[in-house]
Amino acid sequence: MDGLGLKHLWRALVYSWRGLVAAFRFETAFRQELLLAIIGIPLAFWLGQDGVQRALLVASLLLVLIVELLNSAVEAAIDRFGKERHPLSARAKDMASAAVFLSLINAALVWGLIVLPRWI
Asked: Using CB atoms within 10 A of its CB, is residue 10 exposed (0-12), middle (13-18) or buried (19+)?
């Protein structure tokens, strides 16, 4: 890999880190979902009976964080243009919020389908 490739990779890592820091600083929902992941990921390795179950449990939590980051990015981009209400801005924010909601439902279903049968 040449120097330009390493420089590009380094910049991408720095930008990604800045995005994670910004989400943590400014987004309450991201901090809440990160706490859920910090608790849930170790639990996934304990509760999952095999690699597939563990992967599904962890991936469902990571998906929530990923979708929350995208939701926050949509909100920040729209808010950059002002706080006045516009139907397209509202639609974009509502759709991004719905994506977070669906990712949370997905995580609940995955965890429920894997963990609950052992307790029933």
From this structure: exposed
